[in-house]
From TrEMBL:
Annotated GO CC locations: membrane
Primary location: membrane
InterPro entries tied to this protein: DinF-like
Organism field: Solanum tuberosum (Potato)
Membrane topology: Multi-pass membrane protein
Name of this chain's protein: Aluminum-activated citrate transporter
Family: Belongs to the multi antimicrobial extrusion (MATE) (TC 2.A.66.1) family.
Ranges annotated as spanning the membrane: none
Subcellular location: Membrane
Encoding gene (name): LOC102598780
Keywords: Membrane, Transmembrane, Transmembrane helix
């Protein structure tokens, strides 16, 4: 999640400086999409509190 946050912060600075308000929303969309992807990846690897997925 730290990697996702750092990646998103870079996009936030780049997009907000060039596209202003719309860039902020695009950067936030990228952030939320990467968070969802990381969460599904974690569920797919069956690590974490999802022990019932192993059975």
């Amino acid at each position: 999640m730290v990697t996702v946050a750092l990646f998103s912060i870079v996009f936030l600075f780049i997009l907000s400086s060039s596209y202003k308000f719309v860039g902020i929303w695009v950067a936030l969309t990228i952030y939320m999409s990467l968070r969802a992807l990381a969460g599904f990846w974690r569920i797919g690897t069956r690590t974490g509190p999802w022990k019932f997925l192993k059975s």
